[in-house]
Every structure is written in C-alpha cells, then in structure tokens.
Write the structure tokens for this entry.
Amino acid sequence: MTLTEKQKNLLRWIVEGVRADHLPEDCIWYITTLTDCGWVDYKGSHSWPPVTFATLDILEEYGYIKWQQKSQNQYKGALTGKAYEAVDSNFDEPNRSAIPHLIPLTEVEHLDSELWERVRFSVSAGGDNPKAWDTAIRNATVVLEDRMRKLGNIDNINQKATGNGIVNLVFGSNKSVQKDKLPSEELEAYRDLYSGTMKLFRNRYAHRFIDPKPEEGGAIIVFIDLLLKMLDDLNWETENENT
C-alpha cells in the first residue's frame, strides 16, 4: 500500500509549512467546526490542499505524524523525522526523466523520417491492434533493407540480393563495402547484428503473419530506428572520407 497523490501533497504542504515557520513545529493543530475548518496558528498565505481526518489517520499510520490529542473535530500533533525524509526523497520515487528516451515513439520527431513515413499509417489506424503492428514492422524491415542497399550501392552490384545477402555484401569479410573501413572485429559485429535482424524480423514478417503485442511491436520499430541511425553514421563517415 502506498500514499495517494492527494495524501502526499498534504504531507508536503505540512512539511513546507513547518520549514517556513508558517506552522509551529511541535504543535500542529487542525480543527473543524460546523462553520469552519483550518490550521490553528497558520501564518502563511497559501491555501492548503484538501484535508480529511481519514487522510490524517493514514499519515499517522505510516509514521509521518504523531498525534498528542484526538477528538471528533480536532487533530493536534507533530511531524516525525520520517515525514521530512519522505518529502525530501519524493517518497523514494524513481527519477522518471529517462522515460521519454526509453519510449521515443511518444516523440515521433526522433524517429528516422523515412521509417515513420512508412509505418505511421499502420499504427495510426489502431495502436492496440496487433495486425497494425504486423504491417508496420514489415514495412520497417523493408526500409532497413533499402537503407543497406543505398549504403552499399547494391543496386549496381547485384539487384537480386535480398536480406542476409545484402548484409554480407555490406559487412561480409570478403570484398564487402565496409571491409576496409572497419576493424575486422567491428565488421563482424555489424554483420552479426544486421544478419540476425534480417533473419529474426525481416524474414519472419515477410513470409507469415506474426501479429505481435503492441508493446513488442513498438520496441521492434525503435530497434530498427537505431539500426537505421547506425547505418547513417557509417554512410556519413564514408562520405567524409571521400571529400
């Protein structure tokens, strides 16, 4: 069980009020009557978040407040050290700043423009539909294959080359396009990476319906986007070597 956001906000407000001397540190007193409610001796000008006695009971149950006196319409007590620690640590919640980078599909401008152009019609038709992701991944793998053709100028070498054949023409150990531009171990790593992608994704999605779960489909699209960016980096290096 964890605190709700309303409960957390109330505790934050109390802690901030005590630290700003808007509430007495050792005698925090909340009272309600038939006509009014509020914090006794509150010196601040900010309005307080919603307060219920049930919420105050929960804060005490969690050990954030110790009440010295209770009655039907008043709570009087003091914060514990645990309350300050909880607020300072944001209730030990993880830093979520990395999330947008983990799910770049939420910011499609980060995707390869050609990739997005080829998959957007499918996923826009139904993000929860596995069939839409099946089509999107199939198109994405064609974009990847086409980008490798362009990197290796393969249309002028062997127009019949597809899939793993293209990978070998670009990254193979024998007279490949990248053979003299990459260290042998790195060349092999590129070949294994793109060869595995072609076998696992390009071939599978080209020959039968897979209908992946949407979260799997999104992850594959993002993975292919990374592979495209890596190819573009290699192409950029090649073009700069030739200038």
Q: What stands out?
A: The chain has a mean pLDDT of 85.
